[in-house]
Structure formats: C-alpha cells, structure tokens
Specification:
2 domains; alpha+beta; 8 strands; three-stranded antiparallel sheet; about 140 residues; 2 helices
Amino acid sequence: MDFRMNFNQSVKVKLTEFGEQILRNRHEKLNLHYLERGVKDIGPYVSRADTKGYTSFQIWGLMNKFGPHIALGKPEPFKGEMIFRDGEPEREENPNYQVGDRVLTEAEIIEVDEGIGDVKVKVGTKEMWLKESQVVRK
C-alpha cells in the first residue's frame, strides 16, 4: 500500500551501534561548539530509543543526520525496517467502487461494553455500536 507522507512526519528506526556513534559524535561536536562560545555544557549523549529499541525522527531529520553515511557497502546506521507514523494511505482519484464491495476504514474505539462485547466506534463525525466480531485491529 502506498502512503502519502510529509517530511515533517515521524519515522521510527532501530539504530545500529554505528548509528548511535554518529549521533554521539554530532552531540559532542555541538557541545564543543557551545563550550567554545561560553555556553553551558549540554551534558552527555543519551539514547532516545523506546522500550522496543526504536528511535523516532522527523523524516527530514533522519535524512539530514544519516544521509551522508548511507551508501552501498557502508555500515548501516540503522536496520533496514522503518516504521512510518501517521501516514495517509494513497487514494485513487476515481475509485471504481461497486455495490457489494468490502472496504476497510479507520475507526476510533470510544467505548467498550464488556458485558456484551460491543464496541462504540467513531468514523469521522459518526458514532456507532458494532459487535466485537465486526472490529479488526490493525
């Protein structure tokens, strides 16, 4: 599935030790730059990886920081898999829908009735109750 993304949106990657070293070196250079100008020490580099080992960047920031280090045969600064956050699925200009077609849409669960297994979902501005069997997690 194609996704429409903006360079300001976020992407998550698992940094390799080489990638962490690139960020560490950038941090140390920035700290030195500040110290030479009489600004307070910014402290040591701290990894921002989440509990699953992913570090988030705006797409432009990822390209800016790691672009010069990415080429065939070079060590990888992060593992090949990327998670693009908040992407918007690319939509056809004139989809050829027909009566009876099955489609998927995103809905927000806003209430759960544990007793009977129903869930209240919101699609756009419309709210509705569905049977739990009608809801599939993505």
